[in-house]
Amino acid sequence: MAEGETEKEYDTRKAFEELRERFQGLTTALKESSQSTLEASLHFCQEFCQVLVEHAGRWKTDEDPLPLLEVYTVAILSFAKAASCLSSECENVPLLLEKLALSCAELLLLLPQHVPGALWEEFQSSMKLAHSLLQESGSTQLCLLSVLAQQDGVWSNTTLSSILSNQIPQIEQVKWKINYFGVLVKARCWGLGFRKL
After folding, report:
1. What is the sign, positive or negative, of the torsion defined by CA atoms of 28, 34, 36, 42?
2. To the nearest 10°, the Cα dihedral for 59, 60, 65, 71?
3. How confident is the model over 106-115, as a mean pLDDT?
4. What distance in Å separates the CA atoms of residue 80 and residue 142, rounded to the nearest whole number?
5. Rounded CA gap, 53 and 124, in Å?
6. For 182, how many CA atoms within 13 A lie in the half-sphere containing its CB?
C-alpha cells in the first residue's frame, strides 16, 4: 500500500490494475490468435463483455457510482486500443462500442455529484485518445463522449444542463445540441415536451 492510502483505496486501485491487465490480455490474445479475424473478433467481444460485467458488478453504484465511471473509462480506452485488430465484418464490434459509449454517457448524465478532478482528467484524456484511435478506423461512436470530455464537467455546458433540468433554453441552442448530441438528448427532449423540433 502507498503511504496515506486506506485499505479501500488500495483495493480499488488493485481492482483497476487487474481490469487493465485483463483487457490487455484480451488484446494480446486477439493479436496472436490463429483464428480468422472474424472468429477472433467474436471471441474478443464475448470475453470483453464478460470481463466488463464481472468488474462493473463489483461496485455498489447506488452508493458510489464513480468507480463504474472508471470501469467504463478503462473499458472504452482498452476497446479503442484493440479496434485496429477487430474485423469490420463482426457485427458485435460496433454494437458493443455503441452500448458501452451510451452506458457511459447515461452514467455521466445521472451522476448526482461533480466528478472529482483526477477522475475527470483521466476520463478526458482517455476519451480523447480513444476517439482518436477509433477515428483512424472510421468509427465516430465516441463523438458524444468526446464532446462531453472537452467540458470542465458534465454539467458545465449551460444549454445541455438546462435541457436536461427541464428548463426552457433558446430553441436554436436546443436544435444545435440535438443535432450534435444525437439520440441521447433527443430522447430526453421528447420526454420534456420539445416534440416539434
Report:
1. negative
2. 20
3. 81
4. 10
5. 23
6. 13
| Cβ contact 129:83 at 8 Å | no
- Which amino acid belongs to residue 43? H
Give me the amino acid identity at 79: F
Please identify which residue in the block is written with the cell numbers 444542463: 161
The CA–CA distances, whole Å, from 125 to 13, 98, 146 equal 18, 19, 10
CB atoms within 10 A of CB 167: 11
The per-residue pLDDT of the chain, averaged, comes to 83
pTM beyond 0.90, yes or no = no
3 state SS for 109-153: HHCCCCCCHHHHHHHHHHHHHHHHHHHHCCCCCCHHHHHHHCCCC
DSSP string, 34-61: -S-HHHHHHHHHHHHHHHHHHHHTTS-T
Instruction: Return the closest-CA partner of residue 77 out of 141, 121, 26, 20.
Output: 20
